[in-house]
Amino acid sequence: MKVLFLNGPNLNLLGQREPEIYGNLKLSDIEDMVRNRAAELNVEVVFFQSNHEGELVTQIQEAPNNYNYVVINAGAYTHTSIALNDAIIGAGINAIEIHLSNVHARESYRKKSMIAKACIGSINGFGSSSYILGLEACVLNKNKPND
Ligand code: DQA
Question: What residue ranges define each of the domains in the chain, with the CATH number in brackets?
Answer without folding.
Answer: 2-141 (3.40.50.9100)
